[in-house]
């Protein structure tokens, strides 16, 4: 692994990208899960795939645009999809969850159309679906770094407002938190999902956003602790997944998610054993 990092640029790009993604995905995931919007990651990931496949199709039509990274098309589509989800949630105030399947199905439909039109990108599409170590380029790494800076700036600047929005959206309206903060947050979510797909894959990116939070929720109580430990678990799973994927020679996305699922199962088992011990101790005392 060390030799590969020293000798191959794509390995360094993948590892650095993975470390950055392992940081921002669980960070934004803490706010998403608390707001009960976990499925939004799935919807936006499919919209992102539609944007990337559209970018690939445009490049096949206009070869002069090959200098443009298709990821930027994915980010653009994801941002538009995020804004549409928020608009639909406002329109269907009593059935807000309906916005997510509407946008998800639209994203899947667009992906199917543009993947069919963009011939010659089959291998790259597979890498986007499940993640790929060799697919990460310096352009992707720079894009991910830009997204990380934007995410950190936004969360550090509006942490209190996001905290209130996450736990009580109605109360946030009462105290006058600007509605644009909520819109920008959804856009930030879209950017994180788009940035994460190269390493984790479109079909699995939502797991990296939600599973570290799901694991940590069983172990911590405070929100800041939730964020910190979610990030730690996210980093362990991404770095471990990339190393294992390199040696086994498979897509890293699946390995990362399996590691997270195993951690979740171990956490649940630990909790059950702890509960059993406590009950046993109480029985002995009685």
From TrEMBL:
Keywords: Membrane, Transmembrane, Transmembrane helix, Transport. The keyword Transport applies. It is found in: Cell membrane; Membrane. Gene3D superfamilies: ABC transporter involved in vitamin B12 uptake, BtuC (1.10.3470.10). This is ABC transporter permease. Its main location: membrane. InterPro entries: ABC_BtuC-like, ABC_TroCD. Pfam families: ABC-3. The chain crosses the membrane at residues 13-34, 46-65, 71-86, 98-118, 138-159, 171-193, 199-219, 226-248, 254-270. One of its GO terms (biological process) is transmembrane transport. It is a multi-pass membrane protein. Belongs to the ABC-3 integral membrane protein family. The gene is znuB. GO terms for cellular component: ATP-binding cassette (ABC) transporter complex.
């Amino acid at each position: 692994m060390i030799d590969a990092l020293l000798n191959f640029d794509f390995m360094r790009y993948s590892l650095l990208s993975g470390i950055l993604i392992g940081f921002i995905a669980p960070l934004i995931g803490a706010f998403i899960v608390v707001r009960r919007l976990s499925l939004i990651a799935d919807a936006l990931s499919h919209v992102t795939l539609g944007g990337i496949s559209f970018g690939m199709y445009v490049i096949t039509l206009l070869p002069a645009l090959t200098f443009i990274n298709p990821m930027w098309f994915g980010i653009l589509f994801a941002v538009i999809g995020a804004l549409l989800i928020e608009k639909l949630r406002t329109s269907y105030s009593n059935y807000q969850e309906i916005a997510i399947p509407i946008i998800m199905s639209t994203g899947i439909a667009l992906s199917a159309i543009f993947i069919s039109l963009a011939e010659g990108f089959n291998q790259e599409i597979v890498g986007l679906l499940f993640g790929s170590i060799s697919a990460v380029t310096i352009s992707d790494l720079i894009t991910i770094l830009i997204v990380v800076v934007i995410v950190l700036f936004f969360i550090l600047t509006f942490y209190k407002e996001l905290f209130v929005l996450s736990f009580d959206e109605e109360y946030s309206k009462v105290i006058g938190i600007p509605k644009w903060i909520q819109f920008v947050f959804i856009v930030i979510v879209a950017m994180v999902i788009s940035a994460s797909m190269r390493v984790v894959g479109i079909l699995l990116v939502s797991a990296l956003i939600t599973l570290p939070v799901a694991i940590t929720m069983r172990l911590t109580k405070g929100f800041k602790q939730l964020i910190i430990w979610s990030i730690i678990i996210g980093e362990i799973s991404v770095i471990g997944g990339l190393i294992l994927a390199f040696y086994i020679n498979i897509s890293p996305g699946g390995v990362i998610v399996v590691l997270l699922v195993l951690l979740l199962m171990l956490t649940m088992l630990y909790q059950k054993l702890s509960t059993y011990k406590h009950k046993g101790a109480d029985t002995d005392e009685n």
